[in-house]
Write a structure and sequence with these properties.
alpha/beta, Aspartate Aminotransferase, domain 2, Aspartate Aminotransferase, domain 1, 13 strands, 7-stranded mixed sheet, single chain, disordered N terminus
């Protein structure tokens, strides 16, 4: 007998079910169907289209004509539709329910944005169309750029980076170019606080910088004294996230900016947590030299599962000349894209990405901004912070907050409350899946033991936050009862897959499907043993 959540009867139902009862002869469960690779359903002689024989023409391919089969799976249309529909049902999404993944800002994506992005004038433009045929699309990029520079109080923005990490690369390349232009290309050290997102040190290292970690203080913020001590003639930049990944505002950020600038270095701000301060704080007032903005986080364009992101980078006056092309400009002739040339002193950065950036994301982000307005965006930040503090206040009776005091848009717990229970952060997260909740971010930031980082976002109602907190408190009390460790270790029970061997998957990933010979029974193709 286990306690479980029957979604059809509300979250409080208790039903009798043993772990064995979830096994079925087909592997399917409760209309959740098992799904194989599309190649495993394929038959060479099946097709979803009916094409006439091609006309006989003289072969001009020389020796290049394909000899073997092309290897595409042969399927009828209903099989294709069912395959992708089933796959989509395995993908947990913000459209399915609460998605408290910290540092990811999984907020609702308004449908209005989707509608705007599908307008033929935006959805159907081709990046190689002459500029004269797409003035509206260029104006939209320019208008979005205007919102971004106004909101951040920064003079320039590079629109083309395709994600936050790509924006980091853009900003750090601009810093490297500015240093070279100053004749200080020897500055090779980048200071990164210990709580930073992994992309920060990865970006710096990928560009040939040496990463020097800066310790955190006991209250979860960057140690300003340690930072100042590390500044020197070899330091190119600091990469700092604000609010930081512990969900806390770096109160000394002005002092940090001044010290970095006085030491001749640049200040890269990781803006992934901008949702907490949008409309309230202008990074330009904090001494920031450049900051990426994850449109897919703060400005609600759909993300997850490797979908398209967009990471424009706002730049200070001293870095603006090194922005990658293209630039959108507005002058007497209207809106224009500058794709080549442009007077700058140092080495130009060139292009970071094919074409002009993620147009569909631009449309969605601007639709989001226009529908919220400046006051609405400020309220986004206020409500995001309020919701996180509500969750923190409700959960701290049973979970252990990592730091004292209020948080910004996400609340962080450590695993102290699980001490001596035999339950780990990972077990707790797996048990959340059985309760119908996508786990929060775990074991990040690294500075907090067994971290659980919860970001509810402003788009959750009080009711959904309460249901989430109820489930979390139930699990915390169950763990603390001291008798439920085995139950936790067995979770998830109700997911299509139980615990996977994540180490094996990471160390020996099977990345390629190879067919075996098909048998005479015309059965599905099988994956050849590796
Ligand atoms: C999400 C995130 C990034 C990286 O952004 P992507 O768009 O995923 O590349 C960088 N830093 C922090 C703090 C983040 O949360």
């Amino acid at each position: 007998m286990v306690q479980s959540t029957d979604l059809s009867q509300g979250r409080s139902g208790t039903i009798a079910m043993s772990a064995a009862a979830v096994e079925t002869s087909t592997g399917n469960r409760g209309l959740q169907l098992e799904e194989r690779l599309i190649f495993e359903y394929a038959h060479a002689d099946r097709s979803g289209v009916d094409l006439p024989e091609p006309p006989k023409v003289k072969d001009r391919l020389g020796g290049l004509r394909r000899r073997g089969a092309i290897g595409l799976p042969g399927l009828a249309e209903p099989q294709v539709v069912q395959h992708y529909t089933r796959l989509s049902q395995k993908n947990y999404a913000i459209d399915s329910g609460l998605y408290p993944l910290g540092s990811c800002t999984m907020k609702h994506n308004p449908r209005l944005n989707e509608r705007m992005a599908r307008l033929p004038g935006f959805g159907d433009v081709h990046p190689l169309q002459p500029q004269s045929t797409v003035p509206g699309a260029i104006e939209l990029i320019g208008e979005l750029a205007g919102w971004l520079t106004t909101l951040t109080g920064m003079p320039a923005v590079a629109m083309s980076p395709a994600a936050g990490a790509h924006g980091e690369m853009c900003g750090m390349m601009a810093i490297a170019a500015a240093l070279r232009a100053r004749g200080e290309g020897h500055r090779k050290t980048v200071l990164v606080p210990e709580s930073a997102h992994g992309t920060n040190p990865a970006t710096a290292a990928a560009l040939g910088f040496t990463v020097k970690p800066i310790a955190a203080t006991a209250d979860g913020r960057v140690d300003v004294a340690a930072l100042k001590a590390a500044l020197g003639p070899d330091v190119a930049a600091i990469m700092l996230t604000n609010p930081n990944t512990c969900g806390l505002f770096e109160r000394d950020i002005r002092e940090v900016g001044d010290a970095v600038s006085a030491a001749g270095a640049y200040f890269y701000c990781d803006g992934a947590n901008y949702n907490a301060i949008v409309g309230r704080v202008r990074p330009g007032d904090l001494g920031v030299d450049c900051m990426h903005i994850n449109l897919h986080k703060t400005f609600s364009t759909p993300h997850g599962g490797g979908g398209p992101g967009s990471g424009p980078v706002v730049l200070s006056a001293r870095l603006a000349p090194y922005a990658p092309r293209p630039w959108v400009v507005h002058d007497a002739n209207g809106w224009r894209l500058i794709e080549e040339g442009g007077a700058i002193d140092g080495e130009p950065l060139g292009r970071l990405k094919a074409f002009h950036g993620q147009m569909g994301m631009f449309v969605r982000a601007l639709a989001y901004m226009l529908s919220h307005g400046a006051d609405g965006l400020r309220q986004v930040a206020e409500d995001a912070v309020l919701n996180a503090n509500y969750v923190m206040a409700r959960l701290q009776v049973a979970l252990t907050p990592a730091y004292d005091g209020p948080c910004m848009h996400e609340c962080l717990f450590d695993d102290n409350f699980l001490k001596d229970t035999g339950v780990s952060t990972l077990d707790f997260a797996k048990a959340m899946i059985d309760e119908g909740y996508h786990p929060m971010t775990m074991y990040f930031p690294l500075v907090v033991h067994g971290a659980m980082l919860i970001e509810p976002t402003e788009t959750q109602s009080k009711r959904s936050l309460d249901e989430f907190c109820d489930a979390m408190l139930h699990l915390a009390r169950k763990a603390k009862s001291g008798t439920a460790a085995d139950d936790f270790k067995a979770a998830p029970r109700f997911a299509p897959r139980r615990r996977l061997d994540e180490t094996l998957a990471a160390r020996k990933p099977v990345l390629r499907w190879r067919p075996t010979n098909r048998g005479p029974d015309d059965g599905p193709l099988k994956q050849a043993a590796e």
